[in-house]
Amino acid sequence: MSISSPGIGSGLDIGSLVSQLVAADGASTSNRLNLKEAEYLADISAYGSLKSVLSSFQTSLSGLKDLTDFQQRTATSTADDVFTAKAFSTADASEYDIEVVQLAKAQKLISKDGYFPTSTEVVGAGTLKFTQDGDTFTIAVGATDTVEDVRDAVNDATGNTGVRASILTVDDGVGGTESKLVFSSTATGLDNAITVTVDEDGNDQYDDAGDIDGVGLSRLINANLEESVAAVDGKIKVDSQLVSSSTNEFASVINGVTITAKAVGAGESLTIAEDKASISQKVNSFISSYNKLAGAFKALTSYDADTQVSGALLGDSTLRGVESSIRKQLTSPVSGLNSAFSTLAELGITTDENGEFELDQAKLDSVMDTSFDQLGEFFTATNGMASRLDRLIEGYINSNGIIKARTDGLQASVDGIIEQRAALDRRLVSLESRLLKQFTGLDTLVNTLQNQSSFLTQQLANLPGAYKSKN
Fold first, then answer.
1. Is the per-residue pLDDT at 289 higher than 50?
2. Cα distances (Å, whole numbers) of residue 13 to 8, 436, 439, 441, 444
3. Regarding predicted confidence, which is higher, 357 or 439?
4. pLDDT tens for each residue of 300-356
């Protein structure tokens, strides 16, 4: 007789029994694999955190690797409304008397009264030629072209040297209005003054031998235009010495300094000084970044005796090596400097009881007072503090670095756990199949024995003289 469901013959819950036996057989191995996988994943995460803080520290070093960043100067004006200034690393610390004599202006030429009653007035045929600082461009004016057409042609001209045309509508003095054509230089200074000449069309009724009579197109030459704003150069005096510029910027009078004139004024001064505040900020930023790194090292290797909780990389040899190498670089002197200092401690940067940096600001100020330029070399030289730390950290965090290799090894272990778990699953499936087969056979045997027992009992009961209970 075929049994369709395990346990019918014996009355046992074979399915549950087999499931429990299989689970019990795989529990130990499964727990071991889960524990190892969790450990590997925790280490991978910890190495990710380590790489992140190392990268952040390396980024903070970028502001300490360029010597010019340590040679910045401040430029202080006694009157920003009269002039401002910007100093670069090549500027010498000094003080200067400044007077703004004259501001640079851009020239404006405007057509005379009565020339153009409206903006649609025909101007006259020919060629307009504009010249600025030796450069020229021309526009052709047709016999029917108006003031508006000339304006548009100038503004759209290929090779325009820096002339902007516009139209004003103004009172004509007799109760009406008239149009004024304006030519404006887009740049200040005498060099950018506008010269307008014309070559009138020989067939034009207004053509004259000199193209200067103020009729037709010749109304637009300089002699027949009013100069509403004259082109002038900017002028300042530095320590009583006169300096001119086509703009209101003066970039060559003091080496490494650009002065911008804002308004005419005298009796002011300019102070160029070493930017010690900027350097102090850089040093403090370096200290802050390192202390964050030191705090991360401490967290990753910590152990709390009360809670018995440890950092993810407690006892890890790779982390110990990284930390040791960085500390060694920080405490080693910088060689090859032409200065009275070669260590961080001599700059006022020392380590406290928690392994973090602290700064003696007075000591750093003293170094900046006596060796301002050498301080930059301490950090930026090829063998400088920032340069060698950058190279060291790059070796740890780049694509071929030790952290990547360590992480790859851990990931390979995780992949191995996955393979072992798959193998365990296959073994347990096989075990389940075998146990079901065995228990099903047992169930069939028990069912057969039970059937035989019932048959024998029935036959014995039918024998002559067999005792039958009334009950």
1. yes
2. 8, 11, 10, 14, 14
3. 357
4. 888 888 888 888 888 888 899 999 999 999 999 999 888 889 999 999 999 998 889
pLDDT tens per residue across span 210-220: 567 778 899 99
Separation CA 245–CA 89 (nearest Å) = 23
Residues in the chain: 471
The fraction of the chain above a pLDDT of 70, given in percent, is 91
Strands 126-132 and 135-141: antiparallel
Place of tokens 């300019």: 270
Per-residue pLDDT tens digits for 105-119: 999 999 999 999 999
CA angle (294, 295, 298) in 5-degree steps: 90
Distance CA 313, CA 300 (A): 5
Q: What is the CA radius of gyration of the chain?
A: 47
User: Positive or negative CA dihedral for 324, 326, 329, 331?
Assistant: negative
Q: Which of 126, 105, 118 is nearest to 184 (CA)?
A: 105
pLDDT at 204 over 60: no
- Token digits of residue 457: 């009992």
Beta bridge partners of 272: 75, 94
Assess contact for 439 and 14: CB atoms under 8 A.
yes
Mean pLDDT of 171-185: 95
Query: Residue 3 to residues 10, 16, 246, 434, 444: CA-CA distances in angstroms?
Result: 11, 17, 109, 17, 7
**Model pTM score:** 0.68
- With a CB cutoff of 8 Å and minimum separation 6, the contacts of 400 are none
